[in-house]
TrEMBL record:
Glyoxalase-like domain sequence ranges: 110-215
The protein, known as: 4a-hydroxytetrahydrobiopterin dehydratase
Organism lineage: Bacteria, Bacillati, Actinomycetota, Actinomycetes, Micromonosporales
GO terms assigned for molecular function: 4-alpha-hydroxytetrahydrobiopterin dehydratase activity
Entry keyword set: Lyase
Superkingdom, taxonomy of origin: Bacteria
EC code(s) of this entry: 4.2.1.96
Amino acid sequence: MEKRLSRQAASDAVDGHGWRLVLGALHSSVGVSSLAESVEVASRAVAACGGHADGHLRADVRADRVVLTVQTLAIGAVTGRDAELARAITAAGLKTEPGAGQRSVQQLEIAVDALDIASVRPFWQAVLGYADEPGADADGPLVDPLGQGPALWFQQMDEPRPQRNRLHFDISVPHDEAPHRIEAALAAGGRVLSDVRAPSFWVLADPEGNEACVTTWQGRDV
């Protein structure tokens, strides 16, 4: 049950249960009408996970929704146990769905282009108060230990690019949300710079050329 699942297997395991695989975790939300109801929903999710709750479940409790995340926290990945827990939460009678409110679940990353990742990474870790992502290598992403800020990852540069921005956002969305998000961005004046790696990611730009990537889990399994 603690075996790491491929992205395809993780997505398939919760298909039809109102969960989506986004950035190495299973995400869902439950709409509520009050903060008191939100706390009750979170408690029911914890009860459904039983003794595994502390190591696998995170709940963002708000007055209009509860955002639920299931992941094996020790390794920062989805395992068979996580898929089982996500299904158990839904089976507990909670109306789990990707979007409860204005938009679907998503995760934000900030990408830093660097010639020497090992030299710049410690600065960002220190200035942000971030920690190493569990299970990642020495040059891997940095994450907020409190889960409040976006992850930061480092993209290897081959040569200096002084005329191009070297920070960009990665917006990780459910695989079935990506077309709608891209369509909205284009309607708002954006353009597609590259779709060569789609559906893994699309590179978009605003009217002045500032870049952002819409990413999904698809196309990433070896």
